[in-house]
Structures are given as structure tokens and as C-alpha cells.
Design goal:
CATH class: Mainly Alpha
Number of helices: 8
Structural class: mainly alpha
Shape: globular
Largest sheet: 2 strands, antiparallel
Distance between the termini: 14 Å
Order of helices and strands: HEEHHHHHHH
Amino acid sequence: MKNNTSGTVKLVTIGLLTAILLLMAYTPLGYLNIGPLAITFNMIPVAIAAITLGPAGGAAVGAVFGLTSFLQCIGVGGTSAMGAMLFSINPFLAFIQRMVPRVLDGFLLGFIFRGAKKHTNAFVASSVTGFFAAFLNTVFFMSSLVLLFGNTSYIQEMMGGRNVIVFICVTVGINAVFEMLASTIITGAVGAALVKARLVQTPATKKVMAEA
């Protein structure tokens, strides 16, 4: 009976976070487009999913984020100038480049929260998870961009002869800093509130539930 209830709660949580992510993805709440790139806040629901549901939940909601990002390549729910160009070069690689980094990010965030929670309080652990949500999203996204499309004339022109590290730093610039700051603060506050409300399975809450 408890397993059925737990499974239902997880499904409801995934559904709710997916709905929030879709709302953000298809409204100005989720993206702030600046040139070919965009400041995105969509990693925040992914981080919350990883905190509440672990690696699998983070990966699932990360996949939704990846799908919405890919759909922007073809003008669904907004348009990404870079995405549209990558799609015109190779649709399959564009899908991989938009999807895999977000799934991998969400998966790893579940382990990051678990590890951080063992050594600190809920707010700090959630804040760390929020920071890495944005940080890893940027690292994986840009790394896959260079790996999959680095030899194309489009990316070569963007690089302008700079090395890969300089190119990534210059390209993401203040966008990444703003994303990391927002994700750290918001995820920290929301994650701590969820832990306090016992909506996150930590060793302490598991013990309480077992005794109930």
C-alpha cells in the first residue's frame, strides 16, 4: 500500500514539475533571448525534480526540457536562431545536442543533492544543486555544441579562431552567470521548503515515515 502511495506521489510530482516546465518553456517565464543564445530558467524545475525524486526524476524532467529546447529549433513554442541553424545542418545531431545534456544534467543533479545533503543542511544542499543545474547545463550544452558541430562553418565563424575554452566563456558570458545566480537562489529556497514540508525523501524523513 505504501509503495502504491509513494508511486502515485512521484507521478503527481513529475506531472506537476513537467507542467511548470512547459509553462515556462512556452511563455516568457522560461527564456530571455539575447542574440543567438538565451538565458534560460528551465533548469530550475529539473533541479527541483532531482531534489524531490532523485536521479531518475531529474532525468525525466530534464528530457522534457530537452524536448522543448529541440522543438524551438523548428519554431514550436518559440524560435532559437542557433537551434534553427543547427537543425538545418543536421537535424539528428541537433536533437542529440539539445536533449542529451539536459537528461544527463538532471540525472547527475539527483546524486549531487544526495551527496550534499549528507554533509550540510537542506538549504545549502538545494542551493548547491541549483548552482550545478545551471553550471552543468552550460558546460554540457556548449561542450556538445563544439563536439557535434565544431567543424561546421557556422561554429567556426562564431569561434573566430579562438580556442574552445575562450569561445565558450565569451559565448555564454553574463548569461551563464545570471542563470547560475538565479538557479542557486530559487532552487535553494524551494528545495529547503520542500524538505521542511517532508516532501523530499531524506534519511530523517524516511525514519519518521517508517515509525508512523
